[in-house]
Amino acid sequence: MTTPRTVLVTGGNRGIGFTIAEEFVAQGHRVAVTARSGEGPEGSLTVVADVTDAASIDAAFSTVEAELGPVEVVVANAGITKDVLLLRMSEDDFSSVVDTNLGGAFRVVKRAAKGMLKARFGRIVLVSSVVGLYGGAGQANYAASKSALVGFARSITRELGARGITANVVAPGFVETDMTAVLPEQTQADYKKAIPAARFGTAAEVAKTVTWLAGDDSGYISGAVIPVDGGLGMGH
């Protein structure tokens, strides 16, 4: 049985983030999610926050701490895409994606680290993507922001590893979500040809990997990149 922890999942109102929060709730943890709109799963506390705004993150943490106790597990999942080919990519297309996906993780983890240092315990899980190390045409901004999470996690591991704090990266591949469901059938078939498992993953498969990394059994794993991609990104 895993020790019940206070968990915060950013962007927990839809997609993979929602399923991650749902899995933590199912395992008996005290769960809060941040969302700009919408709500997390039943049994979780939803706090409105924007990961590009440090003051808003601070206020969200204060609410969670008051209601559920100090945050022991943080899952930096909130992210955006603005796919466009390099030569057409605007300054804003690039900087807004990096500020949300990488800057957001920085702000959330920095705020969480204070309580983790005091408790001498912490689990930091950063949700990246197979695209981070595999690359994706039209995704220079997104891939750069997602691969940067690896260096971020490894630096945190070197800084905080002696205090009982781990920092790891989960890199999902193609997962059945609302976003993949709208792809044309031929496109889906082409993607599946490139995936050794010959299928898309499920959000639950990602969620169970995240909850395992946050649990009692993974305290000696830190600075790792765990792919959940059916073999698509092998060697990266």
Automatic annotation (TrEMBL):
It is an enzyme of class 1 (oxidoreductase). The keyword GTP-binding does not apply. Residues 5-178 form the Ketoreductase domain. Its EC number is 1.1.1.100. GO terms for biological process: fatty acid biosynthetic process. GO terms for molecular function: 3-oxoacyl-[acyl-carrier-protein] reductase (NADPH) activity; quinone binding. Keywords: Oxidoreductase. The keyword ATP-binding does not apply. Belongs to the short-chain dehydrogenases/reductases (SDR) family. This is 3-oxoacyl-[acyl-carrier protein] reductase. The lineage of its organism: Bacteria, Bacillati, Actinomycetota, Actinomycetes, Micrococcales.
